[in-house]
Amino acid sequence: MTARRPLIAGNWKMNGLKADAELLAGGLASRYKALQKPAFDMLLCPPATLVSVVAGHIAGSGLVLGGQDCHASEKGAHTGDISAWMLRDLGCGYVIVGHSERRADHRESNAVVKDKAQAAQAAGLIAVICIGETEGERDRGEALSVVSEQIRGSLPAGATAQNTVLAYEPVWAIGTGRTPTPDDVAEIHAEARKVANQVMGGGGESLRILYGGSVKPSNAVDFLGLTDVDGALVGGASLKVDDFWAIAQAC
Ligand code: PEP
Fold this sequence. Notes:
alpha/beta, 39% helix, 15% strand, binds phosphoenolpyruvate
């Protein structure tokens, strides 16, 4: 089996001003840089306004930088949007696409997410494609089928384990303090890997699949210890240096 390097990703969402970014990114950068041989990648996804600021604070540390969304086009008349190429230009190596908050707030369909992921890949970024069922879907026993459909609909042609990361984030676990059981997560991740492998035409064993949804220092080990879980996408707990760092220690 191919060894997959864990990825601990922080999604700051719409939080932070320049001074916060300095404390957070600077604090994490000095800790990561002090590691002799870090056994995990650490990704910071600040709001677009802070991408350049964070880039300055993490330079030379080994931390990697990402956007929280991108437009599907390279440039053009799309007021308020930013492109994958713009993120790349600022030093990003990753971009999150299809986060459930964007799927809900901006009505992003699987087809839209797929186009964004394709743009990310064309720009040379790694697309972190988010998938996950709602509470109603889980209650109706549809979690596996919903996640499979999202993978089939959101992964672009040309997706590989090198240019794609999947993040399983049950919608009902995001920001709520509630989490699925480790058995539930293990079941979804195993299925996600199988489906992604089919869609990609192989290479699924090397694909990193993150768990996200109310990950915190006290529960990180429950998820990060699972066979098919290759890291975490963290929202609230990524806004505190000590908490985010403690989560990474569970790798
Ligand atoms: C997220 O928004 O991707 C997320 C997982 O948030 P939280 O960790 O706060 O649940």
